[in-house]
Write a structure and sequence with these properties.
D-Maltodextrin-Binding Protein, domain 2, 341 residues, 2 domains, 5-stranded mixed beta sheet, 16 helices
Length: 341
Amino acid sequence: MSRRRVTAALAVLVTLAVAGSSAIATAQGPRVRLREAHTGTLFMAPVYIAEAAGYMAEEGIDLELFEVDSGALGIAALVSGQVQLFDADPFQAVNLRKQGRQILFIYNLTRRVTLDMVMHPEVAQAKNISRSTPIAQRFAALRGLRLGITSPGAATDVYMRYYLRRAGLNPDRDAQIIGAGSGANLLAALRTRQIDAFHLSAPTPYLAERDGFGTVVIKSSAGDVPELDNFMYTGIAVHNVFANQNADLLRRWVRAVNRANQLMRRDQAAAVTHLRKHFPRQDPAILALALREIIPALSEDGRITSAMLDKHLQFLLDGGQITLKPSAAEGILWTNRFIGR
């Protein structure tokens, strides 16, 4: 990201913070204003729908959603109080804890990793793999390939390197990992054979498959990688001080999101209609495709378990991203106390 883009994004956050600085502190009117940053990923679908369908409004919440260019910007805004909610991952929470700061996960968005790998059909054929091939063979087939990621250090990079290590390969020697930036760039690179495969959350891998220059060979969103199933990939986080001071407000937020979660599973056509408010330039057919593919990877009710979080923490420890694993017990990095019983 360029310095100009970072500066512009931070300026937006500061402007929003000034404009809404008294929205939550007063809370004397019938409605409360919440600001929620996000990275524009479809695993946020229940939150988008809750806002667009009016469920937040019915809970007395004016939810202001805006996209940031990176998780780092979102976390900075959350910690500084410029926003009240953000879709974070456990790695960010552990890092903040080491710095003496604490955020708390109040809602689990996913129950497994949502990245699905698409490979050029000619490469998949040459490697003799498909989704029916044992997962160990699919990992091993990555040897020697040009593998697309968004950027170094991003989730696409972290999990790609994990797949290579699972096959006993050296990510820096046994494959070529290529940063392409956006999903659109990854699609173009696969189409023109500049890369052999990439992985992203829906819909991008399925656009390549639909247009005939890709075949999905690893579908983490469907549980193809067992150790990344029942795994807390990402969730909604708040500052722990905010959580302690706004319990009723967060319960209302959760009710609205879970209502949207139920609608999304019951009536996908209606869900897509609401999602279009937040994805106005996206083809509705593509939104429908993406939603259908990602729903199996999404949490049904936002509940977190110690086992799910412990799996992610162990993943971070094994990968050398953290050197000390914190406890996965409730109350340290997460809580279910805002979710109705």
